[in-house]
Amino acid sequence: MGIRLTMAALAATALTLSATPAALAAEAGLTDEVTMTLGKDGTLHVVEKISGASGQLKRTFITRTRYDDSNDRLYRISNVKGGTLSGDVLTVTGQTVEYDVKGAVTTSGGVEELRWFAVNGWNQPVAKATVKVNGPGQVQNLSCFAGALTSAIGCTSASMDHAATQADFEQENIAPDQALTVVVGYPKGSSDGEPILEKRFSLSAAFTLDTVTGGALAGLLVLLLGGVGLLYWTRGRDARVAGHEGGKVDPVQNGHFSPPDGVRPGQIGTLVDEQADVIDVTATIVDLAVRGYLRIDEQPRQTYDAPDWLLVRQPNAPVNALLPYELALYQAIFDGRDMVLLSQLSGSFATHLGKVRDALYADVVKQGWFARRPDTERTRWTVIGVVLIGVGLLATVALAWFTTYGLLGLGVVIAGGALAVGGQYMPAKTAKGSAALAHTMGFRQYLFSGELGDVPEQHRVELFSRYLPYAVIFDGVEHWSRVVASVTGNGHQADNLYWYHGPAEWDLSKFAGSMRTFTTTTSGAISATRQFRSL
């Protein structure tokens, strides 16, 4: 009886010991049996039998690898069964998974090579994987790699059958971030498979400079920049005038001031630089004072006080005789007031200055000096240039991403930039405008020649004062302020001018400095409204 019990105990122990490896193997992890068949059309059909999974099983396929310096190799997976594929992630729903792979075949030398990551990307460790590969021809060579994707370490075993029609691979303990890659070579032409390549983006490749791209870029730049030049030649140049239209101009007629073509300082300023800017408005304020529409009273100040002036409306001034832009400025200054300090020109003044600017541009068109408003012409061509820059940038991105001709897009950007900058020079004067400009330049030459001519003393103060607003336009305030300060109606120094009054103990010897400061301060006040371009 004792012997029987002992034998039974030994048998039970033996059964327990013999069952332990199997139980440990079942608990060790996933088992993956892979069967791959390469068809004549180059499609690789894969069947995987999976066991030992715990919880939801997912696999992330490798569908893109580096092929060479310029291209990536793609693997396209389709016809999935036994799971659902979202992007590169397969969610397993059964014990067996099937799918097709395209792009797993490439030809190298005289061998057609099948390469696929038979096991990789599982969210659980794979305890053991076996892979069987069947193809359309006899196996020429085979190899396998285990570990990281770039690993050169061989797998546990790799072999083929005696007829060289099937290759077998085996690997144990594959971590989730590792792969088992199998490579099988077949005779060239065994299938119609070929790699799927996608060009990899790189700046050096996208903007390749060679004979083709360089020549195309040069031709495009010649065409586009030549077009911009032709556009300026036909649309942006001032109309020519006869040579006798120029030369020096004497603005004194019968002892009285008569500017060339009867133009006002603001008009001249807009005509010369094709811009309605702060200096044009400043000169117009001085001109309104000289012509008797307002008086400028310099305010007394202490040593460190900021200078200030009181602008006083002159009663009974013929306001109806003002040009539209002058009237708009006159109303902007006073706005229902009889006097205002220059330092207090704010609020509605800024709003009204927009009307002054528009009226100035409308005036030069009304005079027949420009066919279209210079600001509108500049804006139109500048906007077209900016749009062309945008088109060029989009073309550059598209060409760089899909081709190696990104430089051509930059050519369009350059042309757009040239047009945007050149748009500032597109306003063109008419023949009448060119003639007025020639007269204006002749007037400027006269103004700075120093030849004051034979002007009666009783007219000199008024005459030289009338010159002063034009001197503001031509940046000659210092010179003409001294000329004005040097004479009076009787040839003697006076304390004030009829249009400019200084504080106590001020005389005309200080007029040049006062006038220079006034024009600078006034221009600053106008610039602060941001309605006009500053110089």
UniProtKB/TrEMBL annotation:
Organism: Nonomuraea monospora
Keywords annotated in UniProt: Membrane, Signal, Transmembrane, Transmembrane helix
UniProt entry tagged with the keyword Transmembrane helix: yes
InterPro entries (UniProt xref): DUF2207, YciQ-like_C
Bilayer-spanning residue ranges: 212-233, 381-401, 407-426
Signal peptide segment: 1-25
Pfam families the record matches: DUF2207, DUF2207_C
Residue ranges occupied by any DUF2207 domain in the UniProt entry: 33-185
Name of this protein: DUF2207 domain-containing protein
Domain Predicted membrane protein YciQ-like C-terminal, first and last residues per copy: 257-482
Recorded superkingdom: Bacteria
Keyword Membrane: yes
